[in-house]
Amino acid sequence: MSRSCKAYIAGVFEHPTRKAVDKTIAQLHAEVAIGALKDAGLTKDDVDGYFCDGATPGLGGMSMAEYMGLDITYTDSTETGGSSYLVHVGHAMTAIAAGKCKVALITLAGRPRSEGVKSLAAKDYGDDLPERGFEIPYAPVITNMYGMAAKRHMHEFGTTSEQLAWIKVAASHHAQYNENAVLRDVVTVDDVVNSPMISDPLHRLDCCVISDGGGALVVVSPEIAKTLGDRCVKLLGQGEGIKHLNSGRIDLTYTGAVKSGPVAFAEAGLTPADMDYVSIYDSFTITVLETLEDLGFCAKGEGGKFVADGNLISGTGKLPFNTDGGGLCNNHPGNRGGMTKVIEAVRQLRGEAHAKVQVPDCTLALAHGTGGSIAQRTGAATVIMGRNDA
Amino acid sequence: MTNPERVYADPSINMETEAYWEATKQNKLLLKKCDDCGETHWYPRAICPHCSSSNTCWYEGSGKGKIYSFSVMRRVEVPYVMAYVTLDEGVSLLTNIVECDFDNLSIDQDVEVVFRATQGDQALPLFRPVA
Ligand SMILES: [Zn+2]
Q1: Do the chains contact at A248 and B91, CB–CB below 8 Å?
Q2: What is the C-alpha to C-alpha distance for residues A346 and A366, in angstroms, rounded to an integer?
Q3: Where is A372: in which H helix or E strand?
């Protein structure tokens, strides 16, 4: 049995740097592009579609297309924060299926660590932002906003800090084998719950790392994939969406994954039970817990029990996740973790993950990205992929 | 017991929200509802997000509500409580809880509006536990 698909991921590249003091952002974009094209067996002259986020230098993709010497007939710079790259994958699938481009390059780069961006600093988006006057004076930052989501989830469903901690524990078990990971020490539930409280109930070890770097993806048409061999990964389904504060009728116990997940699974003709491996955006432990529920890996409110006792650890648990160590331990380039989620899922489907964390006979995988703030406005995107023979 | 408070930044004020920020200086919390569909929305807008009507009007809210969720931001110079409060009128707004013991707050706790001067002499609504 072989599933048909409209597009393939032919190349991926994760920049090995975690602190790029000596490189510009444009340079990092070009380095990851070169890496992913080489991985695909293509060159920049094969690229006819270019995709990047709204934080990329220049207006949309124009400056980087010039910098890298690309000849582009299709472009998309949709910005949904850390989920942007999984949105770009979906848009590339659509564009390729419509015959608008054949080789789509997606790049991400950022230097929050070198530039000293404080994770605690309130962001300033300017006076045109309609909600600004009603939020910024209260000093919302990403940790206290996600803290409120976690607190509400605990209140409604009895989720505990120890259950959340298991998510970090699983990530750390995987990161120990990743020589590029920022945090490689295996941690315990006690380590997490005894780490300093940042904004309750989130401890320091409930938070992701801050790192420089980037990544790139090359999405190609079936005709091109045929010429590139078995390392191409099938794109079977994608969904996306935006969740916001709904005119004041708020609910912080779920994410935009309730919108993106069903669309992606329907397009793929698959269900959560079919997935051999998942990459789940992990800005904080609570992000993973709510997303797993929203994607249907367990019932709403059951996420705490689902992630506990090592259920997300490769080789031990039922649902191996983030086997590169994820944003919680490995890498969160540019404060945008969606790109690396796709990259590790592709490694798993190619059988190229680290041997200690490789899922045996990994055939079907899911990657999910979350952007913005799950306690304010958030983007979501889900990509379902299959091995070349899936 | 209570804690020292942050210096509050000025709000952004625009044509859609001038009336709101004039009212906070009189210690009034205004809300906006729609004359066509009757629904209150938050944050206040010229166009109703429920039905797209332009017939939105201001009214004075009760200033009372319950904590929906909160998080005590501890890793800063002056710790503070970030919260969403669900007003009796049904909408939830982002705010800070003041005049409280950080360790004795709970979800669903009753709170009421108080006002604080900002850096530039605007007035910012915040909430405190009902005694
Ligand atoms: Zn209306």
Answers
A1: yes
A2: 10
A3: strand A364-372
pLDDT given for residue A45 in this prediction = 98
The predicted-structure confidence for A111-164, as pLDDT tens digits, reads as follows: 999 988 654 444 556 777 899 999 999 999 999 999 999 999 999 999 999 999
Whether A204 and A326 share a structural domain? yes
Ligand 1 center–CA A377 separation, angstroms: 21
First CA to last CA distance, chain B:
12
Statement: residue A87 has pLDDT above 90: yes
What pLDDT is recorded for position A120?
A: 43
Eight-class DSSP state of A333:
B
Phi, psi dihedrals of residue A199, rounded to the nearest 5°: -150, 110
Final residue of a structural domain among A231, A263, A291: A231
Same domain, A364 and A253: yes
Residue B70 corresponds to which tokens in the numbers above?
A: 């909160």
Of B71, B44, B70, B74, nearest in space to B56 by CA: B44
**Which has the closest alpha carbon to A206: A214, A220, A196?**
A196
Residue B102: which of B83, B126, B121 has the closest Cα? B83
Rounded CA gap, A283 and A326, in Å?
Answer: 9
Which residue in A46, A106, A50, A96 sits closest to A73, CA to CA? A50
Mean local confidence (pLDDT), A299-325: 98
Tell me: do A168 and A58 sit in the same domain.
no
- Given CB atoms, is B57 within the 8 Å cutoff of chain A? no
pLDDT, tens digit (0-9, with 9 covering 90-100), for A184-220: 999 999 999 999 999 999 999 999 999 999 999 999 9
Q: Is the model's pLDDT at B75 over the cut of 90?
A: no
pLDDT tens track for B32-72: 999 999 999 999 999 999 999 999 999 999 999 999 999 99
For chain B, domain boundaries: 18-129
Report the number of distinct structural domains present in chain A.
Answer: 2
pTM for the whole thing? 0.96
Q: Does A201 touch chain B (CB under 8 A)?
A: yes
Choose, out of A199, A202, A206, A290, the residue to mutate when testing the contact with B (most B CBs < 10 Å). A199
Q: Which domain holds residue A310?
A: 138-210+236-386
Instruction: Clarify whether residues A223 and A247 are in a common domain.
Output: no
> How far is Cα of residue A224 from the mean position of the Cα atoms in its chain?
26
Distance B50 CA to ligand 1 centre (A): 5
DSSP bridge partners of B57: B33
Least CB–CB distance from A151: residue in B9, B71, B76:
B71
